[in-house]
Design a protein that fits this description.
By secondary structure, the chain is of the alpha+beta class. The protein is 23% helix and 25% strand. Strands 1, 2, 3, 4, 5, 6, 7, 8, 9 and 10 form a ten-stranded antiparallel β-sheet that branches.
């Protein structure tokens, strides 16, 4: 067993830009903006935090502190987009089939175990693109045990995250994911309903939140990808590169804020590899075609303790 050394107090990180599109989506990045100075633990947020362009840092912090949810009418301009093409649907069906047949999910996972995920990540912060760096996180299987984040490049060296707040439907602990629908029609209804409350009425964003850093049960993963065949505007990108430099195919969705979210899958196995955000129009902080966030899952295992590496 290899365990990180105990972390010391962390300084409050500098203010970060909130460009259009998905700001550093990972929930701990939002928590860094609102945690108390000199705290050596970070309460684990319930749900995800892919920050939308309409939310400035102060408003997000205030909303989280007050327990509020910011939402917009379902769909926005994306609701006017057409259905996915036949090629996109076929690819999603293949991805769903691969997810359903995956054998990487161990049987008899215990509630007190942790899902260890190591990723390569890069995103825009302080107006600049961060260098590619490692991110390790230990996620509680049942969501009730203190989690651990190790991402020194982002001021999170051995940051403990005790559970806090009431559970929400979009929690990505394994036990909660097991409660999601296994039927694609019901899964689509779930995505649409929860997206109204949590992701500005954008179900594809919610889908990305659920799969980007989690261990998805096979039946629920398959249902989620099949549900995506009914989300307007979802499209196929023949070649996309994740943060580890691996080429894959992407299932993408263009937002009305000038960005395109891409979920990247292995071209051969159809397994999920990572995600990226690509600018679809020029913005003050980035040019059209620029990748402003990128991640790649390089290791995913179930371990017995937070801090244990496979």
């Amino acid at each position: 067993m290899k365990s990180p050394e105990s972390g010391a107090d962390f300084p409050t990180p500098p203010e970060r830009d909130l460009p259009p599109g998905r700001h550093p989506r990972l929930k701990e990045h939002l928590l860094n903006e609102i945690r108390q100075e000199n705290g050596d633990t970070v309460p684990r947020a319930k749900g995800r935090a892919w920050l939308r362009p309409s939310l400035v840092a102060g408003a997000v912090a205030a909303a989280v502190a007050a327990g509020l949810v910011v939402a917009q009418p379902f769909g926005g301009e994306s609701a006017q987009a057409g259905p996915p093409s036949k090629e996109t649907v076929r690819m999603l069906e293949q991805i769903a089939d691969a997810a359903k047949r995956q054998r990487s999910v161990p049987k008899d996972i215990d509630d007190d175990q942790f899902v260890y995920i190591k990723s390569k990540v890069s995103f825009r912060a302080d107006g600049k693109q961060q260098s590619l760096h490692d991110r390790e996180i230990w996620l509680s299987v049942d969501g009730k045990h203190t989690e651990l984040l190790h991402e020194p490049a982002n001021d999170n060296a051995n940051t403990w995250m005790p559970p806090e707040g009431k559970p929400v439907e979009s929690d990505t602990d394994y036990r909660n994911l097991q409660k999601l629908p296994t039927d694609p029609v019901n899964m689509l209804d779930w995505l649409n309903r929860v997206a109204k409350e949590e992701t500005d009425g954008k179900p594809f964003v919610l889908l990305g939140d659920m799969v980007m850093e989690s261990l998805m049960p096979p039946e629920q993963a398959a249902a989620m990808y099949l549900a995506a065949t009914r989300i307007p505007g979802v499209e196929l990108v023949d070649d996309a590169v994740d943060a580890a430099g691996r080429h894959g195919v992407a299932i993408a969705w263009e937002d009305d804020d000038g960005t395109r979210a891409e979920l990247i899958f292995d071209k051969r196995t159809r397994r999920y590899m990572g995600e990226r955000t690509v600018m679809t129009e020029d913005q003050p902080h980035a040019e059209k075609g620029e990748v402003t966030s990128s991640s790649a899952v390089v290791e995913l295992e179930v371990v017995d303790k937070a801090g244990e590496r496979p």
